[in-house]
Design a protein that fits this description.
This is SPOR domain-containing protein. Helices cover about 35% and strands about 15% of the residues. The chain is built from 2 helices and 3 strands; from the N terminus they run βββαα.
Length: about 70
């Protein structure tokens, strides 16, 4: 058994939490230690995406409205 088989995953296609690597990798988000953490996967993805976008904007010299510094 691999480590992922002993973890929880969020299936982005069905919206269900799964124990072990049941679904195809393209549909799985994780791994997570608990079912509750896996259930929060959509929120976590949004938070991380927002943070990455903000970091990239700063690196590129963009302001909060997506406009370059003048």
């Amino acid at each position: 058994m691999s480590d992922g088989d002993d973890k929880y995953w969020y299936n982005s296609e069905t919206g269900q939490v799964e124990f072990g690597m049941i679904s195809p990798s393209a549909d799985r988000v994780g791994p997570f230690d608990t079912a509750a953490e896996a259930a929060r996967a959509p929120e976590v993805l949004k938070e991380r995406s927002r943070a990455w976008a903000e970091e990239e904007a700063v690196e590129q010299g963009w302001d909060a409205k997506g406009q370059g510094a003048e």
